[in-house]
C-alpha cells in the first residue's frame, strides 16, 4: 500500500519516505571541485551532494583532503577548480560569514568555547540576547537561560545545570551543545569535523545520537570521520577521499559496513604493512587475518531503510527530539 506515495511537501521532522531524487535538490553541491595551495594539489575532481535530512559522511586517511573540502564549503578557502553550488546557485565564499549567511555552520573539533563561562553564556556567545532600548540596553539573561535550556532539550540534551562552566562538561557534551547551538541559529547545513576523534565509545555514541537528531530536524549534515563504524551508524551517503580524490562515493544501500571498512583500511596497504611487520619480527603475522578478512567481523546491518536506522540511533535517546520544534528561529 505504500507504492509511489510522493514525499509529503513541506513537512518537517517526520519526512521518512525517500523523496524523489529530482525533487530533492541538494543544499550544497560540489561538482568536480578542487583546490590547489600554490603548486600542491590538495583536492581534485570531487563530487559531493548534501541533501536536507541526510548525513553525508566524508572519510579518509590523514592528508586525504577532508579538511580542505570542508574549508571550501565553510568559506575559509576558495576552490580553484570545478563548481560549488548552494541551493543550486554557483557561489564562492569570501569568509565563513558568507557561508553562515547561507545557513552553513561548522563545528570544529577545537570548539571555540570559553571554559569558565556557564553553558548558557557559551550557547549565545557572540549573539547575545538583549533587552531595553539602545542607551540602556542590557543582556536578557533570563531569556537566554530559558532558550538555551529549551533548545538543548529539543535536541534531547539534558544537563543538570546550565550555570556550570562549559569546561566542566565532557568533550562529547560540548560537541552536543555546539550542535544544538548551530541548529538554534538557523543552520541548514551542519559540518562536523571529526567530532568523535578524541572521544571514547560512550561519548561518541552521544555525539552520533545528536547527529541523528540534527538530521531528523531536516538539516543536511556533513560528518567528517576516520571511523567507518561511526560513519555507518548514522550515514546516508559515504564519500571516501584518498590523496585528494574521491575514491568511493556510495549510498548506504549500495555498501556494507564491511566493504566501507575495507576501503578505509586500504586492503593493499594492509597487506604491505603485514609484509613489513614480518621482516621486523616479534609479530605473529600468521595469526593476523588475511587480506580478504581485514574488515572486523562486525555484523553489517543489511537493511538500509531509514526507519531501521532511526531505531538504531534512538536506543540511547532519553527523550527523542521532538519533531517540528524549530520555533524561535527561522
Ligand atoms: N594551507 C595549506 N598549504 C599547503 N598545503 C596544504 C594546506 N592545507 C593542506 N595542505 C595539504 O593538502 C593535503 C590535504 O590536507 P587536509 O588537511 O585537507 O587533509 P585531511 O584529510 O584533513 O587530513 P587529517 O586527517 O590529517 O586532518 C595535505 O597534503 C596537506 O599537506
Ligand atoms: Mg583534517
From TrEMBL:
Gene3D superfamilies: P-loop containing nucleotide triphosphate hydrolases. Residues 28-268 form the ABC transporter domain. Residues 303-312 have a biased composition (Basic and acidic residues). PROSITE patterns: ABC_TRANSPORTER_1, ABC_TRANSPORTER_2. GO terms for molecular function: ATP binding; ATP hydrolysis activity; transmembrane transporter activity. Keywords: ATP-binding, Nucleotide-binding. Residues 1-22, 288-330 are annotated as: Disordered. The keyword Nucleotide-binding applies. Signal peptide: none annotated. It holds the Pfam family ABC_tran. SUPFAM superfamilies: P-loop containing nucleoside triphosphate hydrolases. Residues 289-302 have a biased composition (Low complexity). GO terms for cellular component: plasma membrane. This is Probable ABC transport protein, ATP-binding component.
Amino acid at each position: 500500500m505504500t507504492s509511489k506515495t510522493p514525499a509529503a511537501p513541506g513537512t518537517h521532522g517526520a519526512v521518512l519516505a525517500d523523496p524523489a531524487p529530482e525533487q530533492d535538490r541538494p543544499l550544497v553541491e560540489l561538482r568536480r571541485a578542487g583546490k590547489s595551495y600554490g603548486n600542491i594539489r590538495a583536492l581534485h575532481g570531487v563530487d559531493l551532494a548534501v541533501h536536507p535530512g541526510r548525513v553525508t559522511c566524508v572519510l579518509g586517511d590523514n592528508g586525504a583532503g577532508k579538511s580542505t573540502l570542508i574549508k571550501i564549503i565553510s568559506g575559509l578557502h576558495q576552490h580553484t577548480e570545478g563548481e560549488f553550488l548552494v541551493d543550486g546557485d554557483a557561489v564562492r565564499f569570501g569568509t565563513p560569514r558568507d557561508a553562515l549567511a547561507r545557513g552553513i555552520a561548522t563545528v570544529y573539533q577545537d570548539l571555540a568555547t570559553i571554559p569558565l563561562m556557564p553553558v548558557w553564556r557559551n550557547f549565545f556567545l557572540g549573539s547575545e540576547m538583549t533587552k531595553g532600548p539602545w542607551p540602556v540596553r542590557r543582556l536578557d539573561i533570563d531569556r537566554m537561560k530559558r532558550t538555551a535550556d529549551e533548545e538543548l532539550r529539543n535536541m534531547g540534551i539534558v544537563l543538570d545545570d546550565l550555570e556550570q562552566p562549559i569546561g566542566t562538561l565532557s568533550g562529547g557534551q560540548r560537541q552536543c551543545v555546539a550542535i544544538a547551538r548551530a541548529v538554534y541559529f538557523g543552520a541548514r547545513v551542519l559540518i562536523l569535523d571529526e567530532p568523535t576523534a578524541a572521544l571514547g565509545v560512550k561519548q561518541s555514541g552521544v555525539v552520533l545520537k545528536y547527529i541523528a537528531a540534527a538530521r531528523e530536524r531536516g538539516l543536511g549534515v556533513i560528518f567528517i570521520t576516520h571511523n567507518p563504524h561511526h560513519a555507518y551508524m548514522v550515514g546516508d551517503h559515504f564519500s571516501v577521499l584518498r590523496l585528494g580524490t574521491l575514491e568511493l562515493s556510495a549510498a548506504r544501500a549500495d555498501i556494507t559496513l564491511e566493504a566501507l571498512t575495507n576501503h578505509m583500511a586500504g586492503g593493499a596497504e594492509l597487506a604491505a604493512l603485514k609484509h613489513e611487520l614480518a621482516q621486523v619480527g616479534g609479530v605473529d603475522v600468521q595469526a593476523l587475518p588475511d587480506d580478504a578478512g581485514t574488515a572486523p567481523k562486525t555484523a553489517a546491518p543489511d537493511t538500509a531503510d531509514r526507519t531501521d536506522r532511526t531505531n538504531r540511533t534512538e536506543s540511547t535517546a532519553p527523550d527523542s527530539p521532538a519533531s517540528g520544534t524549530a520555533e524561535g528561529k527561522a
